[in-house]
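Before surveying the methods themselves, it helps to consider a single example record, giving the amino acid sequence and backbone structure tokens:
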Amino acid sequence: MHDASDMDLLRDYARQGSEEVFAELVRRHINLVYSAALRHVGIAAHAEEITQAVFVILARKAVSLRTDTVLDAWLYETTRLTALSFLRGERRRQFREQEAYMQSTLPESTDVSVWNQLAPLLDDAMARLGKKDREAVVLRYFKEKNLGEVAAAMKITEAAAQSRVHRAVEKLRGFFTKRGVTLSVSVLAGVVSANSVQAAPIGLSVTIAATSVKGSAVAASTLTLVKATLKIMTYAKLKLALGIAAATLFVAGTMTVALSSDGNNSSIGETSAQERTFSAEIMQATKDEDYQTFVADGDSAFKRITELQFKAVCVQITPRLKTGYDLVFLGGLKQHGYHVTLWKVAFSDGGDDELLTLSMKNGKIGGALIH
């Protein structure tokens, strides 16, 4: 069992429901999950509850996870989403205790002062990386795998893994530099590797393995957290599945005109003033997490988007929008009575671009898909 891959174990668990198999998965990954949770909430008891919730979610999703999933990275991202769900609850006020708590509990290290600067920013920085870059960092520095193991997990060559890791750390370094923490790539990598994962409390692994499999033994508050996180995960996958049933979109032409977040707009070409205004308002409302403004110009179907759906998307994209962005018109077409325009969202953080697809009819927004 100890030689089996994560996904082999997960498939075995999905078929047999074996507590022993699931316990091995928990043993392998509990320190990663607990450490990420603790950085978010800063209180051990709350980090333990989030850790429990993450493994309950894993047990429930065991059948549906793709065989090429990098489980380390999937668990890290699920921990982040679960912690965000937790912080939105009634216990949000306790988040303010995080910095003082972390400074008193982190293991002693020659890099402890640097780590204390990085720790409050690390998971936000990780969230801004692309999926593959995040997988590479989690595998290389959080789980301390060598480049050969990283390459095997990501199904790429060792040279490609080395390039991916280096590029991802450079992006992290840029993020920290903008926030006043200036480090070399080697120092940053060393500090993250030495401090990002710490041991979970003794006995937590056994408790989580048993309760995650049985389900009925999980506390009501944890089950509530699980349900909230599963909703966020579903909505994050759908992004903004809004208004109309999306057909395949074909971009007509490649008009390239920038509409910047600082308000300095240039000529837009073949798109209307109303479409320019609405696309800018949609992105600004998402940046400001302003639900009422987001739906204000929508038709009746668009206004059926719930605030929870909107917030689920904000979790993914708002932090990046706040660093600055440009909105670039790519083209448009008519489809099913709607005029559809496609916009590139280029972020100032240097990460992957997103696309905004805006559908309009009779002066109202019928759909807005960020993907």
